[in-house]
Fold these 2 entries.
Entry 1:
Amino acid sequence: MNERSRATLGGRFTFPGTSLTVQRMGYGAMQLAGPGVWGPPKDPDGAIAVLREAVAAGVNHIDTSDFYGPHVTNQIIRKALHPYPAGLVIVTKLGARRPPDKSWQPAISPEDLTTGVHDNLRNLGLDVLDVVNLRVMGAIDSPLEGSIEAPLTALADLQRRGLIRHVGLSNVTAAQVAEAQAITDIVCVQNNYNLARRDDDALIDDLARQGIAYVPFFPLGGFSPLQSSTLSSVAGRLGATPMQVALAWLLHRSPNILLIPGTSSVAHLRENLGAGELTLSPAAVAVAAH
Ligand SMILES: NC(=O)c1ccc[n+]([C@@H]2O[C@H](COP(=O)([O-])OP(=O)(O)OC[C@H]3O[C@@H](n4cnc5c(N)ncnc54)[C@H](OP(=O)(O)O)[C@@H]3O)[C@@H](O)[C@H]2O)c1
């Protein structure tokens, strides 16, 4: 990869208090499992091609979890990319399990979290995990207030044992972030946020002041990708696609936002990475936001 492509993947961001620097444009691997994030993909070679294309293009931040599949997504990442190139940061998450009925259930006991770490290490082929998010189940796609002290203390113990380098949080409230910071350093927060869903505006600004990464999940709207006539008209004027505008808007929203759009398609991946080269005028930012 050349310096030009590095410069255009949204620029770089260093997770606070770490030596981990990533391009702001990353990749989310959840779409690589089968339908409903369950079982193998319809096109296993295609899944491998997407990951290899992302890394070849300069992506060095991949978001995953061992409960995608379950196990399947991490195994595909390992098959596609192991031995991992220097500088690749794989961020995973713990806190859920997938029973045979394919539902998403909390898994936050010390035993669950220990098992989850070892599942990730084995399936990714790693000795230590760079960043692990505690995924709080809350109301599935949005957080609910309540103490997270017990599971986070258990995760911090696994960090002290050297199995995890850095800790993040997912699906949390501002109060839960503050509670967590009294237990261990938090390097990133991954919550549901995009052009159409902006509950976290104050939290993003607060984390930006602290240099903590904010990583929106569903940056393109998730299972129902974003669509609006405004987005299409801004995109049309810029000669870009609506998805590129949605991603570029997030990059413009705050310098601590890191993107992990998900796709199972090389064409969509290329399109999404192109958003890192899109400059939005203040007027386009304002219009896209309405
Ligand atoms: N912490 C959490 O609780 C949590 C929850 C959900 C997701 N995540 C993470 O966040 C990442 C991103 O979320 P996500 O993948 O669910 O949602 P997303 O990135 O908002 O959108 C993915 C959807 O958009 C489609 N898509 C992607 N690029 C496109 C393009 N250029 N044009 C048209 N359609 C496009 C994908 O389909 P195609 O495959 O056809 O491109 C897929 O259906 C996940 O991969 C996962 O790593 C975390």
Entry 2:
Amino acid sequence: MAQDKKQVEQITDMEVDFAKWYTDVCKKAELIDYSSIKGMFIYRPYGYAIWENIQRILDGEFKKTGHENVYLPMLIPESLLQKEKDHVEGFAPECAWVTYGGVDKLEERYCIRPTSETLFCEHYANIIHSHRDLPKLYNQWTSVLRWEKTSRPFLRHREFLWQEGHTMHATAEEAQAETERMFNIYADFFKDVLAIPVVKGRKTDKEKFSGAEATYTVECMMHDRKALQGGTSHYFGDGFAKAFDITFTGRDNQLHHPFQTSWGVSTRMIAGIIMVHGDNNGLVLPPRVAPIQVVVIPVAQHKEGVIEANRAVMDRLSAAGLRVKMDDSDQSPGWKFAEYEMKGVPLRLELGPKDIEKNQCVLVRRDSGEKAFVSLDGIEDTVSRMLDEIHNGLYTKALKNLEENTYACASLEEVKTKVAAQGGFAKTMWCGDLECELKMKEEAGVSSRCIPLEQEHLGDTCAICGKPARHMVYWGVAY
Ligand SMILES: [Zn+2]
């Protein structure tokens, strides 16, 4: 048992050092490895498999709503990037450039895409001519590159994986509806698939995407009460379309500029999963994206018929569409328990000679540690139901953390005191001025997370300057 104990001890307690706990989990659960370039990570099979599940489910949602996947080049000519002023100002500091092709210096340097609005616009200018060409509902799954100064696994990579949807519409109303539709798909995905509750809102002008008219965001609270921006959906109006000279002939036979959206989520969601659900024994995965939903561990596997009985149960669960693995390696059961706890496998199924006699098995939940003896009759349904219970249990626990650490404040002083003591989300009234937003950052160390769609009336005046208030805002320390 000494070896089993050691395996668990290798991760730092989250209460002692949350950041260290986080990187320990990323490494010990075999999600990621470091490469020789700072900020560029290797997604290991187990980590990549989580992304594949996310991708498969979201891609299905995109297709159900009429979107098509495309692939655009990874290089953007500098002149193209510069066509939209706010956009280039926002991204230029993080761009990496290609300046040589073989041994020749290029006449124009190329940016490695930090995002692809400009490339999509160039393409759309070529293929959109008539109202019959609209809407264009495109998405691409790809990697992007942003030359960050600091890096952490999944949270901040120089190169990371994401999807970027880019759509064009004949009217502003249609584009606005698309922005909201995709934003709601993200919010539902967080709740129904990742078991993470979100605050749905709009970004302030300071925090919105470079070049966007409006940015919608889903904000999540991590276990350490810091905020993580989960996904964003942007409405561009016709600003980019004008800058890129994209026009179409309307039903009225006049030339018009189309209206545009973009929306994206990235492998940062995996950081959210780790930091919302994980515990001191390692990762805790929400069942709907877990690469292994049930691990089957034979007990006294040297005895006759044990492996066969275990394999039969595994086959039944697989046939029912569940993701199952049986571990009949020569490691001790204790070692296996610790290993799959570390990897956050939602359910462990143990089956030994005595269980086989009684036509039962043992199920152990990763989230709560609860142990149950259940009949092998109808094991498929029992396991499916228990996976749903785990999903709901994880969601309820995360919601409790969010609700208990979101509080109203009437003044900047109150925000300062409470944020320092408790972290979490402080909600206040706000006049809408950038000055007050900057003051909040300077003095309380928090940024505006969002202007929630569900507004509450906490008072008539801005908590910072005392002028008439326009919105209720959530503030927090963000990753
Ligand atoms: Zn103010």
